[in-house]
TrEMBL record:
<dbReference type="InterPro" id="IPR034660">
    <property type="entry name" value="DinB/YfiT-like"/>
</dbReference>
<dbReference type="Pfam" id="PF04978">
    <property type="entry name" value="MST"/>
</dbReference>
<protein>
    <recommendedName>
        <fullName>DUF664 domain-containing protein</fullName>
    </recommendedName>
</protein>
<feature type="region of interest" description="Disordered">
    <location>
        <begin position="1"/>
        <end position="39"/>
    </location>
</feature>
<dbReference type="InterPro" id="IPR007061">
    <property type="entry name" value="MST-like"/>
</dbReference>
Length: 186
């Protein structure tokens, strides 16, 4: 016997997928965007949507459910972590004083994520605000080869790193969600 939930999906066309293609907000009919910058932005948008889809429909307690000990990783922790990352990435490309950490000490994004509605709402608000702020800074620099900030980071490098971080954590979110209620990903 196991406490693992049975695998399930709401998809009807492809039962191994998260959702049917017609219902997938990431589904783009036709050719992809032209150019490197629009392509990078489109991929980042899709990974951001994937993270939100993995958290959709869960209670605060389910969002805060930890993975395998000693890890403190949870879906809520991932939302908080990526908000913290967005802020940190802006610190890479600023010439000014770095912004303080959102959640205080190192790893507080995961360690302090608890299943309370107020914390869930704050985490989503933090993520949205930090994404918009980082996007706004980068929108002012459409040249992918331009180097920014004290770290002298190329815009391209930062965009690719953001995609990499979201992609990696969407993989974690797949496993976390399946452990919570058996829902499988795509």
């Amino acid at each position: 016997m196991t406490d693992a939930p049975a695998r399930w999906t709401q998809a009807t066309v492809h039962p191994d997928m998260w959702t049917d293609p017609d219902d997938d907000p990431r589904n783009n009919e036709g050719p992809g965007p032209d150019g490197e910058l629009p392509t990078l932005k489109d991929v980042l948008r899709d990974y951001r949507l994937t993270l939100l889809m993995k958290c959709e429909g869960l209670t605060p307690e389910q969002l805060a459910r930890r993975s395998v000990p000693p890890s403190t990783m949870s879906l809520l922790g991932l939302v908080r972590h990526l908000a913290e990352d967005e802020r940190d990435w802006r610190n890479w490309i600023t010439d000014g004083e770095p912004l303080p950490k959102l959640y205080g000490r190192r790893d507080a994004d995961f360690d302090d994520a608890v299943g309370e509605q107020a914390m869930v709402e704050a985490a989503y608000a933090d993520l949205k605000r930090e994404q918009e702020a980082t996007d706004a800074v980068l929108d002012a620099h459409p040249d992918l080869g331009e180097r920014l900030g004290r770290e002298n980071v190329a815009v391209r490098e930062l965009l690719v790193h953001r995609i990499e971080e979201y992609a990696r954590h969407c993989g974690h979110a797949d496993l976390l969600r399946e452990c919570v209620d058996g829902r499988v990903g795509q």
